[in-house]
Amino acid sequence: MDMSPVEYTVRRHDNVLAGLEAVIAHKPTSRADAMALMSQHIEMEGVRQFLGKSLYKHGDYLDWRFNVESLKRNYLSILGWQPIEKSNVPVLFIKGGDSDYLTAEHQPLIQAQFSHAKAHVIANTGHWLHAEKPAEVLRAIRKFI
Asked: Is-above-0.70 flag for pTM?
């Protein structure tokens, strides 16, 4: 979803990481407090709600179910990509219409690795399309399958 099989070189998630770290540092005792902390760093409500699904009660405060330190430490590896041998498996690329993560310039690299690639664009949504328009994403996946 909204990713190309290319190596990305621009850090686009520093605000998200800052929001995650704010929750760790302040140890909120309620979901509302955690969401308020994240809102100081993460503008999109849908993204905060999506991330908030991974909060859990850890003693007296809320914490993350995933390893934030590992995400920070491995961020550049997550952005990376090693080209793969061409696959004949049908693949669906779902793009947010307002996002610049999956671009026309990436098309040759996609075709070089996925000979049966199809694309579906979800209009009026950005990179976090699964958080912004989950029903449309599910509809595209179901149609593809």
From this structure: yes
